[in-house]
Design goal:
mainly beta; 13 strands; globular
Length: about 170
């Protein structure tokens, strides 16, 4: 299967850039399809979440971001102790991480806190997407650092991570 990857390059962007219908994960079975508009290093993205992103280890982002759920819902899962990974849960799963909240579009006009999520670039998390998926609008600042996965307290770049652990597909890992 051909694997499609999103950009991890945080070097200076062109002043204007448009990326159309990028598939993340496997080309024929992506977990996310996104449309990206980059203007002077800032980006506006439309995400169509089909499945959860990788939940084996938490990841961060290259820049601060604001995400607004337009349709559907998702859970943002964050670590309680940043040195622990979801893969090491012990007997009591809730001891190692927590669900920050369910973000959905149902209460957009009455409960905005349930549809808007802000994250600093350094915040570690993963998204859990229920059946039915979600559509989000994301605003991201200029990149400050390279993003990656936190494996046993160490930050791994995406290519190294996927080479070692494979790409997630339907809740299984290839």
């Amino acid at each position: 299967m051909k694997v499609m990857k999103g950009s991890t390059n945080t070097s200076k962007f062109k002043k204007f850039q448009i990326r159309w219908k990028e598939k993340l994960g496997y080309e024929n079975d992506p977990y996310l399809i996104r449309w990206t508009f980059i203007i002077f290093g800032f980006s506006i993205r439309i995400h169509h979440w089909i499945k959860s992103d990788d939940n084996r280890f938490f990841h961060d982002h290259s820049a601060d971001l604001l995400s607004i759920v337009l349709k559907g819902r998702y859970w943002n899962v964050k670590p309680i102790d940043i040195n622990l990974s979801p893969i090491y849960k012990g007997n009591n799963n809730s001891k190692w991480f927590y669900v920050e909240g369910i973000f959905n579009s149902w209460h957009n006009f009455f409960h905005m806190k349930n549809s808007i999520w802000f994250s600093k670039a350094e915040d570690r998390h993963y998204l859990s997407i229920p059946k039915g998926g979600a559509w989000t609008l994301m605003f991201e600042g200029r990149p400050r650092h390279k993003w990656g996965f936190y494996v046993n307290g160490h930050k791994w770049r995406p290519l190294r991570y996927f080479h070692k652990y494979g790409i997630i597909q339907d809740g299984t890992y290839q």
